Amino acid sequence: MLITLEGIEGSGKSTLIPAMVAYLEDRGHHCVVTREPGGTEAGRQIRAILLSPGNAGLDPMAELLLYEADRAQHVSRVIRPALQQGSIVICDRFCDSTVAYQGAARGISAKVVRDLNELVLGGVTPDLTFLLDLPAEIGLSRAWRQIQSGDRHTQETRFEMETIRFHEKVRQGYLDLARENPERIRVVAADAAREQVRAAIIEQLALRLAADFQP
């Protein structure tokens, strides 16, 4: 099973993953935790380019192709092998991010994004996606507090430096995806208390496990 977490900056994806892993492993499932960009050694080098504030002028198509290059390596070297071994893969961002950021927000053709995603995924798609949704201004405020406190790397702030309008477009792109894929994408209110968000995620995990792993 491939589980992905999506959302705008500051939505709290990475803070929820340990609770998800604990819940799944307590029930006998082996988990592989990964992320995009940067889930492989080559991907970590691509991540440095994509998230560096020094690359603010990166062309949108160049940005898209770098994300897809990262994803091709990631699927080939990490995700597909883990799935074939029976692990549950939990990925912080995946193909939906490209639709929301490079498609909805950057304005690249939805067909171009979809075709490139299909090419590099090679049939690997998420089984369950949690969309952590909250207003853009709240997410950005959280992200900058984390950066200023040292909890997030100052060399990975290129997207935080985008306008509020950009992040509103990203959010809308995600919500559009959720409406188009209600069977896969679970929208979780990420502006609630952390414990409430965690409980909502665990509840949905329990339902999915009951459906997929029943005797």
From TrEMBL:
Task: Give residue ranges for domain Thymidylate kinase-like.
Answer: 5-201
Q: Does the keyword Nucleotide-binding apply?
A: yes
Q: Name one GO biological process term.
A: dTTP biosynthetic process
Q: What SUPFAM superfamilies does the record tag this protein with?
A: P-loop containing nucleoside triphosphate hydrolases
Q: What is its EC number?
A: 2.7.4.9
Q: Which superkingdom? A: Bacteria
Any idea which UniProt keywords this protein has? ATP-binding, Kinase, Nucleotide biosynthesis, Nucleotide-binding, Transferase
GO terms assigned for molecular function: ATP binding; dTMP kinase activity
Q: Which residues of the sequence carry a binding annotation for ATP? A: G7, I8, E9, G10, S11, G12, K13, S14
One GO cellular component term of this record is: cytosol
Matching entries from InterPro entries are given as: P-loop_NTPase (IPR027417), Thymidylate_kin-like_dom (IPR039430), Thymidylate_kin_CS (IPR018095), Thymidylate_kinase (IPR018094)
| Reaction equation(s) it catalyzes | dTMP + ATP = dTDP + ADP
Family stated for the protein in its record:
Belongs to the thymidylate kinase family.
Q: What does this protein do?
A: Phosphorylation of dTMP to form dTDP in both de novo and salvage pathways of dTTP synthesis.
Identify the PANTHER family for this entry: THYMIDYLATE KINASE, UMP-CMP KINASE 2, MITOCHONDRIAL
Its recorded name reads Thymidylate kinase
Please report the organism this UniProt entry assigns to the protein.
Desulfosalsimonas propionicica
